Structures are given as structure tokens and as C-alpha cells.
Amino acid sequence: MILEGITYMHEHTTIDLSRLKKSDDTNLNCFDETVSEYKNLYDKGVRNIVDVTNLDMRRNPLYVQKVAEQTGINIIQATGFYQDKFLPSFVTEASIDQLSSLMIKEIEEGIAETTIKAGIIGEIGTSKDRMTDRERKIFTAAVIAQQQTKIPITTHTTLGTYGHEQVAFFKEQQADLSKIVIGHVDLSGSTDYILKMLDEGVYVEFDTIGKENYQPDLLRIEMLKEIEKRGYQDKVFLSMDITRKSNLSYQGGIGYSYLLDTFVPMALENGVSQTFIDRMLRINPKKFMDD
Fold it and tell me: Which annotated residues bind a divalent metal cation 1 (predicted)?
């Protein structure tokens, strides 16, 4: 359930990718600093965060619940598996039915050994320019779980690649495209690439806002302007996908508030309408999650 207010649709309250990244920076476990930033977001009108940290990201549902309790922000947690190189051996051995049953259990009963129910499936991922056999198992299981529970699916595209193929897969599996968002599409740098996905009926996410080492935010804004011009204001979300301690303001990073404090004013100054901003941050997430 999405509360009235601003929603960040693709974030991580805590995440640990350090076993593969070989850097403690990718173990986002700074509880007090995260609480401080989330309180700041609350003061700016943020009421919901969709936390897409799943099984192989070293998720910690009780930690996330505690952050929610201390900040007043409604944090929606996820079930599912990530991209191939992060997958546990369990995925190799498990059947599609076992994977979908696990997701359904976490949606209907609770994540892991808790009673915290998952509100979204994801972020399920594909590798750069391809979908591996194990990723295909997960995508198939996610569709089965969606068909049974009716909750949305959120995806990871590595550097924005393989988005068209994800959509084609979902169509082939007869998934509900109106309940699917393709992630990281802003990393593609191509408006035409994104428009082709929007033509199919899925949602898309500009969810790496502020990561200018990948794409300049002004390019993201130019793409958003064209998407608005083409009439797809109802199908886009904004978020930041913060995963590192160094992203947080206490370490001199841009912090979770960058989206509202810097990106939104920049977008407005460069021709994105306030109406479109409100749709991406307020109206579209509520429709996607609640309808």
C-alpha cells in the first residue's frame, strides 16, 4: 500500500554486495546515517520507499522495518533474486516451481522467518546484453508468482541493456505488463530505446539519478522531455538506486535528497513540466502499486 506523498521506486535501505565487489563501500550498513537521511526525506514529503533488496543482496528485513519505524516512511520490501553473478547455488538446484513457491510464500506469509510480507517481486535481473539460464528460471518463476498474487515485478537491466528482450519474455509468458517496470533504462542513453518499451505497455524507471559517472543528468532530462512530448507521462518513475556508503551525505556523497533538491529543480529549469514530475514521484507509483 502506497501512502499519499512522494515515492522513491527503486532504493536499498541496506545492501551488501561486498563479497563480489571486494569493497566495504558496497556494504550499506550504516543504520544511524540512513535513518537521518530518511528523516530528511520525510521532511521533504517522501512517504514511501520501494526497497528492492532481495535474497542474494544480503537483505535484512528486520533492519529495514526498524528504519521504517524510526522515520515514519512506509518501506515496501521485496522478494526474488538478482543478477546471475550474485545468485546463490540454491537457484541452480531449485526447480521453477520451488522458486515461485518461495516468492509466493514471502508475499503471502512473510520474508524469510519474519511476518513482513513482500510487496513487490524484484529486482530480478539480466546480465549485460543477455539472459542466462538461471536468470530465465527466475524470470519464469516471477511471472508465476505475479499471476498468483497480482503484485508487481521490478527488473534490473545491466547498464540498461536487454530491456526489449525482458519485455518480449514477459509478453511470451503472458505476464501482466501493466504491473511490470523495467529498471535502469536511463543508463541506455537512448530515448528511442525507451519509447519502444513504453509502446508495449510496461513502466520504465529513471532510477540512477545522480550517478553522473554513468550518464549526465542533463541527458536524463532531455530523454524525459521527449518521453513527455510523446505522451507517456503515466508510465515513468524516478529514483536513485543508492547502494554505497560513499553515496550518503555523511561521507560527502550526493545523498538520497539529491533527487528532490538538485535533479527536480534542474529538470524544471530545462523544460520538464511540474505535472510530469508529480506524476513520476506521486501519482504513477500509487497507481502501479495499489491498483
Answer: 10, 12, 123, 241
Query: Domain residues for 92?
Result: 4-288
92: left (phi over 0), alpha (psi -120 to 50) or beta: alpha
Q: How far is CA 202 from the centre of its chain?
A: 14
Detail the residues annotated as belonging to a binding site: 10, 12, 123, 156, 184, 241
Triad 56, 60, 63: Cα angle to 5°? 160
Q: Are strands 15-16 and 27-28 parallel, antiparallel or unpaired?
A: antiparallel
How many C-beta atoms lie closer than 10 Å to residue 200's C-beta? 14
Grid coordinates of 237: 518513475
As for how many domains the chain has, the answer is: 1
Write out pLDDT tens, residues 234-260: 999 999 999 999 999 999 999 999 999
Whether the link from the prior residue into 123 is cis, omega within 30° of 0, is yes
CA angle 131, 81, 211 (to 5 degrees): 80
Instruction: Give the integer Cα–Cα distance in Å for 190 and 126.
Output: 19
- Where are the extended beta strands (E) located within the chain? 6-11, 15-16, 27-28, 46-51, 74-76, 78-79, 120-126, 153-157, 180-182, 203-206, 236-238
Where b means 16+ CB within 10 Å and e means fewer, 9-24 reads bbbbbbbbbeeeeeee
- Is the pTM of the predicted complex or chain greater than 0.90? yes
Residue 65 grid coordinates? 522495518
CATH number at residue 159: 3.20.20.140
- Helical (H) or strand (E) element with 17: none
> Per the annotation, where are the binding residues for a divalent metal cation?
10, 12, 123, 156, 184, 241
pLDDT at residue 20, as a whole number: 86
